[in-house]
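Hi there,

I know you've been waiting on this one. I reran it after we fixed the sequence typo, so this is the corrected version. Both the input and the resulting structure follow.
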Amino acid sequence: MRSDVSEEAVPVVGKGMRTYVEVLLRVAPDGTETPEVVMLPDGRLFRIERVESRRRVGDGYAFSVLIGSHVTTLWKELCGWSGPRWFVVLRHERCVPRAERTGTDHAAA
């Protein structure tokens, strides 16, 4: 068994959670929006190197953006409670007890 893996817990990447964010963007004279910075609710800032693509999706837009060396999606919903809102989908890694993960009980004999 690998020494860096605990027998008691297994790391699991959970489903993504919609997280509303602040976005600094540039608006061109023709109305084109180009997001430049994303700020998460905890205050972390991420500079957008470039917008790879933008497409209409349902009631909003999906921007494929390059942050550092990672391409991710920045979403803009047009019909939020208080008007247009921006969000990202964050995936959190958490450790789950092995018994919970496998559905079995590893009680000591």
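Quick highlight: The first strand starts at residue 9 and ends at 13.

Best,
R. S.
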